[in-house]
Each structure stands twice: as structure tokens, then as C-alpha cells.
Pimeloyl-ACP methyl ester carboxylesterase
Amino acid sequence: MVYPLVLLHGYGEDQKVWDLVRAAFWPDEHVVTPSYASRSDFRSIEEYGEHVYQELKGMGIDKAILIGHSMGGYIALAIADLHPEFVVGLGLFHSTAYADSEERKEMRLKNVAFLENHGPQAFMENFVKNLYAESFAKEHLGLLAEHIAHSSQFPLPALTAGMKAMRIRPDRRAVLEKAPYPVLFIIGLQDKAVSPDDAREQVGLPAHTQELILPEAGHMGMVEAPEKCIDAIQEYWRRINESF
């Protein structure tokens, strides 16, 4: 039996963000990329997680390896917390088990207000450029423009729902501490969205880990350093499957 790899996208993204990773697994029958980018009916990360879990169960998947980017990592942690028997591997890709600080919660509220007052296009023009390392952003203006254009198409209610759900998520460090499987961490040292110091601190929580440190990457390692990220994910996927 081969355990499938489930790649969970982050906020302001959809399954397209995983295109390069998925292509590296071709034929990709063992890779699943759910999308919840346009959903506005979820009020919490737990509701996102339950939706993904039920979708996967409906596909006949009883156990899986979950790797989540940013908000996708929060969703993966929620599934691992609520349905531990389902998860045989967990990866935090530019993500964190920490809850939002009070300062960050306030920033989320400001983001919601900006979205409601100015719309997705204006919000994404500011939001997207901060996802990349400054040097990468300056050298890839066309790529950033494509990212902004794509993300600006997501419905306003979905974007505000995701922002509000992230704001109230709980601390889930206990999931890492209790993990019976190795946990994968992919960390960008130029990341402005997830503190590299916080991310590296969490590497010490699980009993067994695998980590990839990307010194030149920001929050979008699958785009900024795709080869390294693909190698790490494939190695982790093989490691988990070979251990069962």
C-alpha cells in the first residue's frame, strides 16, 4: 500500500501553487491537491480541516501524508489533532503550530477591513509582494504580477473568511510533541509571514523530524527554490511509505 501525499495550499492560493511539485511526481496518482480557496462558509480552521478530511475520506483515502503551506499547515495540524488516526505524516511548509500573537490578530482585523473597503485586487498587490524574498521579487516581476492577478480572482467573502479563521486558530504545538511519525519542516530564512526563529524553535518539538532550511527564500519556497523543496518532499514521502 502506498500512502497518498496530500498538499494543502495556503491563504490567497489554490491548488495551482503546487503545480511544480505535483509535476515532479508524474504519474501523480498518489498526489492529492484539495482546494478551498473559494469557500466562504467556514468560520474556523477546524471547519476547513473537517471539510478536507471528509473530502479525502470520500475519495476512499483512510490514511495520508499531509503537507500544508502556510494556512494549509494550520489545516493539516487541525486534521492531525481531530483525526490522529488518519495522519501518517505531517509537513509544515512555511507554517507554524503557534497561535497568532495579539499583534498579529490585530493585523488580521486590519487586513479584513482593507479587503472590505478596497477589494481583493488592491489587497493582493500589497500582500503578494511580501510573500517573496526581496531579491527574488525584484528579479521576477512578471511572476509576481501573475500571482497577484490569479489571487485577485478569489471571492471577497472567501478571503475574509480565511483571514478570520486564521486569527482565531489555537496553539497546536501539542500535535507536534505527540507526533508518532517524523515531521517535515520547510523554513525560509527571509520569510516575513512566519518567523524563521519560531519555525526553527518548533523543529525541536517532535521526536523525529526532517528539515529543509532555505537561506534565500521567503514564504514561497515551492516557487523560489522548487528543486530543493521537491527533493525534500519526495524524500519525506518515500521515508514515510518505506517505514510502514
In short: Strands lie at 5-8, 31-32, 64-69, 87-93, 183-188, 209-214. Residues 5-243 form a domain with the Rossmann fold fold (CATH 3.40.50.1820). The chain has a mean pLDDT of 97.
